[in-house]
Each structure stands twice: as C-alpha cells, then as structure tokens.
Amino acid sequence: CCCVFAGFSLNAQDWKLEKNSQGVKIYTRHIAGWGIKEFRGVVQVKTTLKEVEALLRNAPARSQWMHNTVNTRDIKVASSGEIYSYSVIDVPWPATDRDNVTKMHYKYNLPKEFTVELSAADGIEAENSCCVRITRMNGYWKAVDLGNGYVEITQQAVADPGGSIPDWMANSSVIDSPFNTLLNMKNRLEAAIMSKKIFGD
User: Fold this and answer.
1) pTM to 2 decimals?
2) Distance between CA atoms of 33 and 11, rounded to whole angstroms?
3) Alpha helices for the chain (secondary structure H)
4) Residue 85 contacts by C-beta under 8 Å, 6 or more apart in sequence?
5) pLDDT of 63 above 70
6) Secondary structure element (H or E) that encloses residue 120, with its range
7) d(CA 148, CA 140)
C-alpha cells in the first residue's frame, strides 16, 4: 500500500467535479484497469488533527458517520500504525451487501499532516455468506492542518465492488457515498469541538 499515491497518478483521466454542496466537493475520474470510477472528496472542517485522527481510529463509531456502513470493528492491530479493520456495507435491494477487510496504515508525513493508507486485505477474516467480499481496493485519508483553526480532509479511493451491481448504484457509490460520509464527518467533528468549548474537556 506504500505506492498508493504514485499509483493513482498513472493512466488516469483528469478529475471531474461531480458535486459541490455544504462545503464538500466530490471529484471522479476513470483509471485504466478499473471498471468503476475513482473518487476524491475534500472538505474543510473547524477541528484539530487530534480530533480527526481519534475519529478515524474509533472503529466501532465509524458506522455512525460512514455512509451505509455497519458492523465496523478492528480485527487485528499489527502495530501502532497498522490496523486491519472489518466492515459491512449496506447495499440497497436487489444487490447483495458487501463486506471488506481493510489494511489501514496511519502515519504522519509532516507535523501538521497525516495520512491513512488503505488497501484490501485477504486471509484475515472468514468470508460472510450474506455478503460479497470486496477484494480489490486502494485509497487513503489525508488530513492537513491549515493553521487557521481548520483541517482539510481528503478521502480518495477506488474499489471493485465485485458481483453484479446496477450502473445507477455504482455511480451513486462514488458520488453520494463519499459526499454523505464527509458531510457526516464534518458535522460530527464540529459538534465535538463546540461541545468541548461549552463544557470543557
């Protein structure tokens, strides 16, 4: 997963802005070798790097803000920076729910910037007969302290959902899903900061 950033720049089209609402921007592009578009979502949030990292590391709470995601839990902690996490994605009927095991590698690139590199992992968790396992995925989270009380958060990923999914559902997954995820994240982080200001730590 360490070549995620370099790999994403190869054989890819230019980004196209698909949605710009409530401070969240969602871009998509086609990448050679992938049947589904890659997405990039960007939002600026009134929060701190510490709050963003804590939110991303809290596996049980991810289902409260990650769109259509349920049953989230960490299943293996290889090191302080490397975690394997399991989640189930609630997919609308008639398609089958998806599940995945994600290798998450946390690291600080700079004092005011950290990333979480994401890749699909195999052989960590037995497959669920009620779901289609996502076995091919690359992406990352990036948080940058802008120095003005705001943090810019970027979520970028491309994943092969496997099985059969209608086109409208696939398109929704690369626009609506990251949009709702980032908007939920923004609202949750800003509410947490406001609560700390009112009630203290």
Assistant:
1) 0.88
2) 9
3) 4-8, 49-57, 167-199
4) 59, 72, 73, 74, 75, 101, 102, 104
5) yes
6) strand 113-120
7) 24
